[in-house]
Amino acid sequence: MKKLFMGVRLKRLRDERRLTQQALADAIGLSLSYLNQIENNQRPLTVPVLLKLNAAFGVDVQLFSDEDEARLVAELREGLSLPHVGEEISGAEIKELATNMPAVGKAIVALHKKLARALDETAALAARLGDDRRPDTRTASAPFEEVRDFFYARHNYIDSLDRAAEAVSAAMGRATPGAIEDRLRERHGVRVVRDEGETGYLLRRSYDAATRVLRLPASLGAGRQSFQLATQLAFLEFGEMIDEQISGTPFTNGEARSLARIGLANYFAGALVLPYGAFLKAAEDMRYDIDLLGQKFGVGFETVCHRLSTLQRPGARGVPFFFIRVDRAGNISKRQSATDFHFSRAGGTCPLWNVYEAFVRPGRILTQLAEMPDARTYLWIARTVSHATGGYGAPEKTFAIGLGCDLRHAGRLVYSNGLRLDDAAARTPIGAGCKICGRPRCPQRAFPSVAEPALVDEATSTFAPYSSS
C-alpha cells in the first residue's frame, strides 16, 4: 500500500464529530503529537490507524481511499481544462486540491456540471429560437447524465438493495423465472402472460397495475425473463427502499427521478439473479472469466459484465471495474464505474481504445493494455453483443461492451494470461477524449486540445493533425 497523506480529511472528520485533537487521539489510542503530525501531513495515514478509526467511529475506510482521489482528479482535470476557466492549472495543483480539499474539489466539479448543462440548454434554445412548436429547451441527455452521476458517486454499489436482493434470492434457492413468477403471484397477485407470435419491436416488459398483469415476450431467454420479472418485483416489493435511495438527491426534474427509479429497480434485478456472495466467489474462483460465469448463472455476456462492475461491498470487494456500452457511432448508452476511470463528456472517446476494434471482430473477446496521459494503465476487455426482436428481417441492435480495471488488479483476471503487464511498450496510449487530451503527436486526433494552443504553420504539414507546442 502506498503512503497516504490525508491530514485535511482527518481534520474534517474530527470537525464533523466535534472532537478536539486530544479527544480523537484518546479515542484511537494515539499520542497527541502523533495525531498532529498526521493532520499536518508529516506522517502518512497507516492501515492500523484506519482500522482504529473504523473500530472507534464506524468510519468507512473508503473515505480515505486513493481510488476516490483519482476519480476526483479525473473529473477536476476535465472541468478545469476547458477554455472558459481562463487559467492554466497544472496536474500537480489539481492533485493537491483533490488530496487535501476533496469537498472543495467536488463543489468545483458540481459547478462545472451545472455550467455544462446550462451551456447545452442555451445551445438548444438558440437552435429553437423562433420555433414555438418545441417550448421545452432541456437537452434530452441531461436526465440520463444525472442518473449516471448518481451511480458513479456511489461506486456503482447500492448496499441496501443489494443485500435485500441477496436475501430474496436465498429464500428462493435460485432466482429462476418460475421462482420469481411464483413470488409475484403469491405476494402481489400478479399474473404473468407471455405473448406468442409477435414480430418487430417488442417491449421487454409491460405491466398493467389495474389488472395486475405483467406481459413478457415469449421469445425472451431464461436469463432475460428472470431479469424482467425481478425488475417488476423490485417496484412492487421494494419501492419504498428505492424511494429512500433517491429522496436526498437533488434531481432537477421528475424525468431524472423516474430514470433513477428504473436504474435502481434494474440494479435490484441484477443483484437478485446474480446474488452478491455466490457471484463474487464464483468470479474469484474462475478468475473473472465472463463466459464461464455466464454459463454458471444462465445469463448473457453483457449482464455478467454489468454485475462485475458493482462488486464493491465494504469488506467483500471484487475487482473495481469500469463498464461501458457503445454503438458503432461511438454513442455511449451505458457507463458505470466502480473505479477511477473517467471519459470526457465533451469531444467523444478515444478511437485507439479497443472497444471500437470489437466491431471489426464481432463475437471475439479482445484485450488491451491502455495507458492514459497521466500514466495510469488499465486492462481492457471488449466484445460485441447483439440483440434481435424476432426472426428474419426483424430489427437488431449491436453494441460493443468494454470492461476495464486498473493494471494492479490485472493479474486476478484470466484475460491477463500472456500479456506483458510490466512492459511499457505493450501499452496503447489512449486519452479521455480529444478535446481534453494533451498527447501532442496522436495521429488519430479529431479535435485540437483545449489545454494547448494549436500551431498553425502554412509552411509545414505534419502526420499528426492539430499540432501543439
UniProtKB/TrEMBL annotation:
Record GO terms (molecular function): DNA binding; DNA-binding transcription factor activity
Protein family: Belongs to the short-chain fatty acyl-CoA assimilation regulator (ScfR) family.
UniProt keyword Nucleotide-binding, yes or no: no
Keywords: DNA-binding, Transcription, Transcription regulation
Gene Ontology cellular-component annotations: cytosol
Pfam families linked: HTH_3 (PF01381), Peptidase_M78 (PF06114), ScfRs (PF09856)
Transcription regulation recorded as keyword: yes
Protein origin, superkingdom: Bacteria
Alphabetized InterPro entries for the sequence: Cro/C1-type_HTH, HTH_RamB, IrrE_HExxH, Lambda_DNA-bd_dom_sf, ScfR_C, TransReg_Diox_bact_type
Native species: Mesorhizobium australicum
Protein name from the UniProt record: Transcriptional regulator, XRE family
Chain coiled-coil ranges: none
Domain HTH cro/C1-type: from-to ranges: 10-64
Database matches in Gene3D superfamilies: lambda repressor-like DNA-binding domains
